[in-house]
Design goal:
heterodimer; A: mainly alpha; MetI-like fold; 2 domains; extended; B: mainly alpha; two-stranded antiparallel sheet; 11 helices; transport (chain A)
Chain lengths: ~270, ~270
């Protein structure tokens, strides 16, 4: 028996574990398969699928290149503005919440309560926030901005907390030992550590908000969602196509830019 | 003009060190300009917000106390939602593996295949889940099937992207050794790369499932089945006590699933 065969025999045997895992996964799969309900699927569906594909391939170019308030470019601009302002407001709201729920800054019970609060903020779907804000601001992009802001808080503060808890305290001690005032400690010891990471997280969230902003139209909170849904309900597939193409191009561009900027920020 | 001139410090030995100029003022200025135009476009108005913010609490106050009698009607849709996201997540994660294999530039020598697969994955990722669900309801009819398809598409795109990034960053030494021994690319991938990426792959898939449960809850809004359907109905009837019950149930469910998934990811992977 040579050394290679010996190593092969020494390989841990995981047959039992593998079988158990496989059985569990299969049971879950079977259980979830009961949700599949194809009774509503008719030959009509195939025709509609064909129409949608046809619409995307032959988009309504008038709509795609009109630069008034009904055209796709303006709607996309509005969506970007909603996502952008929503991210800014969300970041401003998330920063104090993040500091309040960081266990190395505030006492444990306070941090726990704020965290529980954040879980609730995170679970309420965007659509419910949208409806709540429409009461405040009336329908339109303003409601969309506030909705995006509240929706972003959950993830932003969670990621901010991770960054805050990773703060390097050695630097603060050395700053103190050379006689820095508390203000100087914050300015030169804390802000440089946090700033770049915070911005990187905020840009990432902007990227996500852009996708989510497209759904706000469902409740009348502005953006490109509403025209998309109207076009779909009216079976105007070429309009649907032009809106989807605009949205996809925009998201691809923003994703590309945001990856580039974030790489630059994080690597310095 | 102190801002524009580059500062320099003269060291005791006579050497002059230029201080790197910070780009922060430029970035802040650009952000402020973007903010100004966004405010113009969206009609953001702080005064309205301050004056009418009490309206925000009206719906929230109506949700408390939640309507506990409504709970009995919610179990079935809740399980539908979980089933939908489970099925979509499992199938999507499984299909993501071959797609990620074809999208990795270090596995496939034919760069056309790599670029095309990557492009398909990004296209799928750009499609907002709710829009995908809406399209699916037109094709598969109203019901859980549409939601499952939407979640399936999202999972492929999300898990697939993370997976091909991992494959591209994987350690290729074992892979190359196996190839030189005569394994085909595919079988070398199976025995050298998969063991490396498996823990992260499973962890991403479970994390995706966790997010999908939360997402599936709103898919019902476009008729894609599950608890979102009940949410939509209650919102439509302005029965906010029922909405409160649904949200409470959702929060508890999401919390339980998050805890389980976190335990699995920390203990086993």
């Amino acid at each position: 028996m040579n050394i290679i065969e010996k190593h092969l025999l020494n390989e841990p045997k995981r047959t039992v574990q593998n079988v158990i895992t496989a059985v569990i996964v299969i049971i879950f799969l079977m259980w979830s398969l009961t949700a599949v309900d194809l009774s509503n699927f008719t030959s009509n569906g195939v025709a509609i699928a064909k129409n949608i594909l046809h619409g995307i391939v032959t988009p309504n170019t008038d709509l795609l290149f009109t630069f008034n308030t009904n055209g796709v470019p303006y709607l996309l601009l509005e969506t970007v503005a909603i996502a952008f302002l929503g991210t800014i407001v969300g970041t401003i709201l998330a920063i104090p919440l993040a500091f309040l729920s960081a266990s190395n800054i505030v006492p444990k019970p306070v941090a726990f309560i704020i965290r529980l609060f954040l879980i609730f903020v995170r679970t309420i779907p965007a659509i419910v926030y949208g409806l709540m804000f429409i009461r405040v601001t009336g329908p339109g992009p303003f409601a969309g901005v506030m909705t995006m802001a509240l929706v972003s808080i959950g993830m932003l503060s969670k990621l901010f907390v991770d960054i805050i808890e990773d703060l390097e305290v050695n630097i603060l001690e050395s700053l103190e030992s050379i006689g820095c005032t508390p203000f100087e400690k914050i300015r030169y010891g804390i802000i440089p550590q946090l700033f770049a990471m915070f911005i990187s997280v905020a840009i990432y969230r902007f990227d996500m908000n852009l996708r989510d902003a497209a759904i706000l139209g469902l409740v009348g909170a502005g953006g490109i969602g509403a025209p998309l849904i109207f076009a779909m309900n009216a079976y105007k597939w070429s309009e649907v196509g032009s809106i989807l193409i605009g949205l996809m191009v925009l998201i691809l561009i923003v994703e590309f830019l945001s990856n580039k900027i974030r790489n630059k920020i994080v690597r310095g | 003009m102190n801002i524009l001139r580059a500062k320099s410090i003269t060291l005791p030995n006579g050497k002059v060190v230029p201080v790197k100029r910070s780009k922060t003022p430029v970035i802040i200025l650009a952000l402020l300009i973007c903010c100004y135009y966004s405010v113009q476009i969206t009609g953001f108005d702080l005064q309205v917000l301050v004056k009418r913010i009490n309206q925000f609490w009206v719906i929230l106050a109506d949700m408390i106390p939640p309507n506990w009698n409504y709970l009995n009607k919610l179990w079935q849709p809740l399980f539908d939602t979980i089933k939908m996201s489970l099925l979509g997540s499992i199938l999507g994660s499984v299909l993501a593996l071959p797609l990620a294999y074809f999208a990795s530039s270090n596995m496939r020598k034919n760069q056309t295949v790599v670029v095309v697969t990557k492009f398909i994955l990004s296209l799928l990722r750009t499609l907002p889940t709710l829009v995908a669900a809406l399209i699916a309801t037109f094709i598969f009819g109203i019901g859980t099937m549409a939601g499952t398809v939407a979640i399936f598409i999202f999972t492929i795109a999300y898990v697939g992207k993370l997976l091909y990034e991992q494959i591209e960053n994987a350690d290729l030494k074992a892979f190359e050794a196996m190839q030189s021994m005569g394994h085909s690319t595919f079988s070398a991938f199976r025995f050298a790369i998969i063991p490396q990426i498996l823990p992260n792959y499973l962890s991403n898939a479970i994390f995706c499932f966790e997010g999908n449960v939360r997402y599936a809850a709103i898919l019902g809004y476009v008729g894609a089945g599950g608890i979102g359907l009940m949410l939509n109905e209650s919102l439509g009837w302005r029965n906010y006590a029922n909405v409160g019950m649904i949200l409470l149930l959702l929060a508890v469910t999401v919390f339980i699933i998050e805890t389980i998934s976190e335990t699995i990811r920390k203990k086993f992977l």
